[in-house]
Design brief:
Chain lengths: 206, 206, 206, 206
């Protein structure tokens, strides 16, 4: 039997470091009086029982866990506008302290369920006591309303295992549409908002 | 001239204690496998320049600042569902460590601008080094999508001082409608979601 | 079998609130340019296996755990000078948000082992979701060098169950003497230091 | 006039990342039931007025501040035993995410004042929004009792600018001796303590 606490420790450390780094970026934008593409950042290490369940479902052996399960360490970056998502992806790509392994754009191409998010898998070099170790981290970038919808869908999916009753399926779709509409209205008002935010900053400095 | 750092210190302390207390409530619900009416909590002390600006605008004298400006300390509690807002208000009313001074329900009666939120002003007893001091704190309770809209409106309002150009005013209204629709869709799907969350918890415990 | 996670939750919450409150006091002193009797604050909830071990050793039944085991929640306040310890005890006695239940002065009357610390057991009212609950918390107040010695003695005691070999016992006593001497030298230099700290503060403000 | 808030931001970020990284090391040792050479970690960015004062005193021009003032970002690592200090220095040297620029051993060769500490200046690569930036950080490694003494000496030095009255100078020396003796007693008892800590860990694991 695996010593899970030992195995998961580097993942926890990677999540902590990355949360700190992306939150620091937000502060830099704010300090310069610019719109931050990052609204807030959360992170988690996948609980052991979820790892075990996914190993079974996807036929992943324990000895290839580190390479074949990409979301043991997970980071979520929430944005105000859809446009910010792509800017965050750019920021990640040009960093020297991590390497992008894979990207999946479920924003332009939402899943049939209605799920929207931008997924980036990175390789993050971590300094342990006596060596360096590279761990995979999945970063999900999404707007606040994408996040809201996804949280709800996740709970329901857990129960129904993807086999939603007709009525629930319908309601989820209507909620996805409302979420999409909210993002669209926000995008249209976006430049106006950003100019207002710069104005607000200048006034507060002045 | 006021020593602002000294004056604002108790407000900062009140905000810190209240953030801790309401975040602890969330953990209690989660630990019991129940839906938490509290999704997340933020807080802030009003910046000095905003206090000065509001003093001028509302004709508030410095010597009555503590009683007449109720939002120097501000807490924001975000909820998943509209129904949770009223449950959070109940939670606040029945606590022994604070006293409700005033309530304003802009959820049932949204402002003409489209603004929705539930405001509660409390009096919070704070233990200083050698005495107890009561400070006022404004708690705003809202759903995630109310919060999203309000953030945007706040930025724009700051610039235009409430005198929005026609086009922006129209867009803000459409965004408010999209936000309202999202909340409604979520409310309808709510019981289903909560049952699913309980199910998810039981599975993870089991 | 007890649901420990549920049982210990209020204790964790009490520790969190008290850490926040005593750390805030320190900031108040610093902000006023005065010597803070509180240097730093740590806290912990007793681990389940230590609770079980102590129940056996002291014949404490599970149904009287809340009243008969006073250190399930523990706070430690570290001071720069011996004199600060008594000032911290005063601060605790005059607060309205907790009640002192018991005090034991192992500073003036050190234990035969050499252990020195001031112990205060308080009753702390905690606001749960639907009721108030009073929990006992043990606060240990000590200088940095008392703390250093105590940490070491605790580790050794755990192994030898109080039955130290002669040589170790001798060494512990010599360390206790060195720790005591350091505290004494510091006390004598104390007024000088405090005046210097006030001077430093005035310069930094000016 | 320099925009200090902008200039100091990367230093603050470096301090935050390094605190997180060294605290994580401590957890790794604890998780393995081994003695951690790191007891606790603090950090700070030098206040602007101290930077200005040091620029004057040392004739450092603003344009060479980044290279010529090595302690704008400062980290302090506290150890239980003198021996741990050298182990921490080893840990720092073998890391890939920082480069050692300079080392000064005031532990083996204490300053005439009685000051003891191990100083390491590192270069730390920081990822900003659009580029990498290397910042200097001074890491001071010391035992708890060295730290206690140094804090006191710092306050006094600030006031007297190094010109201590005879009596104070004498007292500081006696305190330095008491601090040194405490460290020596602890070192002699060290192997015993570490074995006891391993024993305690094994028992708690069951």
């Amino acid at each position: 039997m695996k010593n899970w606490s030992q195995f998961l420790m580097p993942y926890g450390q990677a999540v902590d470091e990355l949360k700190l780094k992306f939150r620091a970026l937000r502060k830099v934008y704010q300090n310069q009086g610019e719109h931050s593409p990052i609204e807030f950042v959360t992170g988690r290490v996948k609980p052991v029982n979820s790892i075990l369940e996914k190993m079974q479902r996807r036929y992943i052996r324990e000895d290839v866990l580190e390479t074949d399960m990409q979301d043991i360490a997970g980071l979520r970056i929430m944005c105000q506008f859809v446009e910010d998502i792509y800017q965050v992806a750019d920021l990640i790509r040009q960093r020297n302290d991590m390497t992008v392994i894979e990207e999946r754009d479920y924003v332009s191409n939402s899943k049939p369920s209605g799920y929207r998010s931008y997924h980036i898998v990175i390789e993050y070099p971590l300094q342990l006591i006596d060596q360096e170790k590279k761990v995979l981290v999945e970063i999900q970038v999404r707007t606040l309303s994408m996040n809201f919808w996804a949280t709800v869908e996740h709970s329901l999916n857990y129960k129904y295992q993807g086999e939603f009753p007709e009525e629930i399926s319908e309601r989820l779709k209507r909620a996805a549409e409302a979420s999409f509409m909210l993002d669209q209205e926000m995008s249209e008002i976006r430049e106006e908002i950003q100019e207002a935010q710069r104005y607000q900053y200048d006034q507060q400095q002045g």
